[in-house]
Amino acid sequence: MFLTIGTTGTPERPATDLGFLLHKHPDKAQMFSTSHGTAHVFYPEASAERCTAALLLEVDPVALVRRGKGKGRGGAPDAALAQYVNDRPYAASSLLSVAMATVFKSALNGVCRAMPERAETPLPLRIEVPALPARGGADLVHKLFGPLGWTRVDAVAVPLDEQFPEWGDSRYVQLVLEGELRLADALRQLYVLLPVLDDAKHYWVAPDEVDKLLRAGEGWLAGHPEQKLITSRYLSRRWGLTRQAMERLELVRLAESDDLEVESVDNAVDETTDTEERPVPLAGQRRAAILEALRAAGANRVLDLGCGQGQLVQELLKDVRFTEIVGVDVSMRALNVAARRLKLDRMGERQAGRITLRQGALTYTDKQLKGYDAAVLSEVVEHLDLPRLPALEYAVFGSARPRTVLVTTPNVEYNVRWETLPAGHVRHGDHRFEWTREEFRDWAGQVAERHGYAVEFVPVGPDDPEVGPPTQMAVFTMAGADGRAPEETAGRTRDTATGPTTTVTDPTNATADPASATTDPVETKEAKAA
């Protein structure tokens, strides 16, 4: 197997800097032992104007056979060719990827202590692979490398036999890539795409391959148009691992689209506490108020936008009138917790047919969310930065346009009733704001006016005569959906207070006394900011 990496330079930036980046001296020929043979690194040319590094991998066919038989464990992927007659010693494959990771480990990681700024700078690169198996042909090569910033992608098919052109082309191509990229990015792309094009691996694909794929695909795989094919082939079509990788890549894409860290997007599951919800009375009252409003609206098909760990979905499922329930959340971890909570894997077919759990960001429109009777945003809006509320508003009220929308959010005025909540603090560390009753009414009224809805306000929890209820809920009804015009109901408050005011000990303590009528640790919810 053979691979060359070349670059050009100037007297100020000599091409021989490539030797520093690869951590291999241009004046030396070096050998490295690998699990399946010997890797050689040498420089066919090394001057200030041009420098080319070559990686030659000599595969030991006997060692290859001894290390495993059959596809995925070191043997030849094509059993019909037998164990000793195959292309493994000659054509670029996962064997070459492993050799690259061994020989050019620091360069793959973008590490160069001698020239750190050079490692971060794009270089004019030329990469050649004389024999590359491409299951999918030259077209697939262009689809894989074309979107990655290369200005030239040449994949010339190798004929089966030059003396017999009528036999046609083989599945091998001569690959030439040219463009200005960081060396680390180019090496990572090759590390992933060589075995993808070969569509076979010489070793067993274990769960840690998902981490390897995401590390090597950082910065380019999440937005690649052929992401699904790359992921599936790289993981040898192991569906469980492919699904896991796709879920994590979707989180990366959503985080990158909003310039956020992945950890800040995927935070619906609190790692420091039990993921199972404790019996918190106010949380139960909130769900009860939502269910009552949905029944009053005659809703059958319901969206739970920002469903978190599925507590509301679980309650909706208990009522047969809700024939279709869709839970949407940006966090796949939260959705997986919801699936376990609901026992989807053991649920009967008819019952499971009522539920759909989908990953999605609530600040983006989604045509699949159109046409539903009702949508619920329970303890969601306060997790968004205020400048992003218009995007959420349009996605729900302007695009999806359910007949009824329920929005619940904390009433900041009630916070003075939490004895252990410091003054000026919000109830949850991820809350970007908490509204007074007047602020919530102003926002809801403007939303209703802009999108043709009427709105009512319903207290949830004890309605304190001085500071109001701990949770406030707005019930939006599309104009004409109940036969009334928006002005007939806008701003009207329906009193459904559930009991007297009660002082509690700590609203953010997950172990608060369940007997307290208003204990509200605020259920762990996804920061819907993605």
What features would you describe in this structure?
This protein has 530 residues and is an alpha/beta fold. It has helices at residues 17-22, 61-66, 94-103, 105-108, 116-119, 137-145, 183-198, 208-216, 227-234, 239-257, 262-265, 281-296, 311-317, 332-342, 349-352, 389-400, 437-451, 486-489; strands at 2-8, 30-34, 37-46, 50-59, 123-133, 152-159, 169-181, 301-305, 324-329, 355-359, 374-378, 404-410, 453-460, 471-478, 492-493. It has an 8-stranded mixed β-sheet with strand order 10-9-8-11-12-14-13-15, sandwiched between helices. Helix 7 (183-198) crosses helix 9 (227-234) and helix 8 (208-216) runs parallel beside helix 10 (239-257). The protein is elongated, with a radius of gyration of 30 Å.
Shape: elongated
Count of helix runs: 18
Residues in β-strands, percent: 15-25%
Q: Biggest sheet, strands in spatial order?
A: 10-9-8-11-12-14-13-15
Beta strand count: 15
Q: Let me know the average pLDDT.
A: 83
Structural class: alpha/beta
Annotation keywords:
elongated; disordered C terminus; 15 strands; 530 residues; 31% helix
Task: Describe what is shown at a glance.
The chain is of the alpha/beta class.
Helix and strand arrangement:
Layout: E1 2-8, H1 17-22, E2 30-34, E3 37-46, E4 50-59, H2 61-66, H3 94-103, H4 105-108, H5 116-119, E5 123-133, H6 137-145, E6 152-159, E7 169-181, H7 183-198, H8 208-216, H9 227-234, H10 239-257, H11 262-265, H12 281-296, E8 301-305, H13 311-317, E9 324-329, H14 332-342, H15 349-352, E10 355-359, E11 374-378, H16 389-400, E12 404-410, H17 437-451, E13 453-460, E14 471-478, H18 486-489, E15 492-493
Parallel strand pairs: 8-9, 8-11, 9-10, 11-12, 13-15
Antiparallel strand pairs: 1-4, 1-5, 2-3, 3-4, 5-7, 6-7, 12-14, 13-14
Helix pairs in contact: 3-7, 7-9, 8-10, 9-10
